[in-house]
Amino acid sequence: MNKNEAVGQPSKEFVVQQAKFKAAKKSTLISVLVNTLLSIWQIIIGIFSHSSGLIADGIHTLSDLIADFVVLIANKKSHKKPDEDHPYGHFRYENGASLILGIILLIVGVGMVWSAIEKLLNPDLIPEVHMIALVAALVALVAKEGLFRYMLYVAKKVNSSMLVANAWHARSDAASSLVVAIGIVGNLCGLRIFDPLAAMIVGTFVFRMGFKFTNQSMQDLMDKGADEETLQEIRDVLDSIDELSGYHDLKTRKSGDFLLVDVHLELDGNMSITQGHDIAVNTRKKLMENPQILDVMTHLDPYDKHIKH
CA-CA distance, 92 to 239, in Å (whole number)? Predict the structure, then answer.
């Protein structure tokens, strides 16, 4: 038990987790409100203005609503306290949520491309788009870009990969609205093929983003380790501890947005168990000063300078 816990104060990990939970809940609820209004706006205007690109963009926005509810559920589940079945906590709910977000993007992207190709193969069936569609696309573009910048700011502030994924989901919507607006302009200028072409471009972009997030979350769920920069930070801490004769078998793995660290510490084989234990506790304490590190497991190995390690 650390000092904070002994006097009834919340631990560093608890404070960080609660900050992430509150920030995620607030930003996601704002996203739900914005996307609800935008999806209704785009789909209704798209139907009346005969813009397949705007309808596709509205459906894409609707998929954001599904994504937002996934994030809300995962955010709540991931901050449950450790239990008998999950002694390291439930942080991987976040990795699972990122995977679901990626799959949603993949499905939406494929559907948009498929619909656009059907219209491109039958250009005579492409109707003329009305001017109101351009207004709707521009309004959606401004709203989505603003939502992206807000959500990314919050995600970076609390260091949440799940929120970063959701923020970029909003940015993909902003980019899609830009492409749709260009397609509508082309259609209004007499080039009707521009509207379904815009829808196809948006679908391709969405599919690409979906692949990226799906791949990243799969890697995290398969115990992907820390990046080289973070590993070097850990090595620097270990190298700064004079009592250590060395270390080896340094391993890391992700759990949500946190890291679990395993390392073998090399100590003078003639020191007492108590001395070795105190050094291990001090090493863990210094490593845990990194807010990204959730827990550190150490193993003590006797060191003999005459034996090559």
Answer: 31
Q: CA–CA separation, 122 vs 125, rounded Å?
A: 6
Report the alpha-carbon angle 49-51-55, nearest 5: 105
pTM of the predicted protein model: 0.59
Give the number of residues written for the chain: 309
Give CA–CA dist 178/53, Å, rounded: 11
- Cα–Cα distance, 262 to 250 (Å, whole number): 6
Mind listing the pLDDT tens digit of every residue in the chain (309 residues)?
444 444 455 555 556 666 667 777 787 788 788 888 888 888 899 888 888 888 878 877 777 676 666 666 666 666 667 667 766 666 667 777 778 878 888 888 888 788 788 888 887 777 778 899 889 889 988 988 888 888 888 888 777 776 787 777 777 778 778 888 888 898 888 888 888 888 888 788 778 878 887 887 787 777 777 888 888 999 999 999 988 888 999 999 887 667 889 999 999 888 888 998 999 999 999 998 888 888 899 999 887 665 554
Place of tokens 């205007």: 45
> 75: closest CA among 174, 148, 154?
154
45, 133 contact by CB (below 8 A): yes
Report the C-alpha gap between 276 and 83 in whole angstroms: 30
In sequence order, what DSSP letters do the residues of 155-177 get, joined into one string?
HHHHT-HHHHHHHHHHHHHHHHH
261 Rama class: left (phi>0) / alpha (psi -120 to 50) / beta: beta
Residue closest to 63 by CA, chosen among 169, 198, 215:
169
Find out whether 108 and 59 touch, Cβ atoms under 8 Å. yes
Q: Say if strands 258-268 and 293-303 run parallel, antiparallel, or are unpaired.
A: parallel
